[in-house]
Amino acid sequence: MKNKQAILEGILDCGIVAVVRAESADLAFKAIEAALAGGVNVIEVTFTVPGALEIIAKLAKTLGGNTILGAGTVLTPQTASDAIEAGARFIVGPSTSLGVIEAARLKGVPVFPGALTPTEVVTAWQAGGDMVKIFPANAFGPGYLKDLHGPLPQVKFMPTGGVNLDTATEYLKCGAAALGVGSDLINKKLMAEGNFAEITERARKFSAIVQQFRAGA
């Protein structure tokens, strides 16, 4: 098992967290394979996916060592513990749950609580969040992230919700340490059509955006 710091560094290095929401386990597996083929090796399986715990357990046994597998939409400490036992290497929540943060910390796993307001961000960070998920990011856009980042440069931010190929660079410019990307990458319509090649192509484009931004920065 990689240690906590190595996992966090791997996530930050990739810069993209592929948020997987699917109608079935089969579609989830295929979408994940497509994202991996495009160079996005950080995968967040949300607990809105049917059989999420079983999917995480199976992926943990079958995916290569370079893949960083996590669990998302984690609402309770027990869910966090179960996901980690199944093989999740990071935990993401839509809100700031002190219990979830503590459960992940006790297991030595990075945790990214969700927040939106400055008070929520500081609460999440001071409670031990390794990165704070700004959600829903599209409620206020990249400019809001810049406003948060100004007085809170020590906080690592991961905007999630509405992040797409058109806004990704701007979020990075405004202080995002990583981007949580859901429907613009793991797209339900593309999955339903069986167009996993397009998911791979989108993954390549997102990876290129991160690399180009960092090269320029």
Notes on the structure:
With 217 residues, this protein is α/β, with parallel strands linked by helices. It has a single domain (4-212), classed as TIM Barrel. Helix content is 48%, strand content 14%. It contains ten helices and nine strands. The strands form three sheets. The protein has a four-stranded parallel beta sheet, with helices on both faces. A three-stranded parallel beta sheet has the order 6-7-8, with helices on one face. It has a two-stranded parallel sheet with strand order 4-5. Strand 1 (16-20), helix 2 and strand 2 form a beta-alpha-beta unit. Helix 2 packs across helix 10 and helix 4 packs parallel to helix 5. It starts with a helix and ends with a helix. The model has no long low-confidence stretch (mean pLDDT 96).
- How many strands in all? 9
Distance between the termini: 32 Å
Assigned CATH class: Alpha Beta
The neighbouring-strand order within the major sheet is 3-2-1-9
Q: Globular, elongated, flat, extended or rod-shaped: what is the shape?
A: globular
Uncertain regions spanning at least 5 consecutive residues: none
What percentage of the residues does DSSP assign to strands (E)? 5-15%
Radius of gyration (Å):
16 Å
Helix content: 40-55%
Query: What is the count of structural domains?
Result: 1
N-to-C SSE string, H for helix and E for strand: HEHEHEHEHEEHEHEHEHH
CATH structural architecture: Alpha-Beta Barrel
Main pleated sheet: 4 strands, parallel
Q: Give the averaged pLDDT, no decimals.
A: 96
CATH superfamily descriptor: Aldolase class I
* Number of continuous helical runs: 10
Task: Say what oligomer this is.
Answer: single chain
CATH T-level fold name: TIM Barrel
Secondary-structure-based class equals alpha/beta
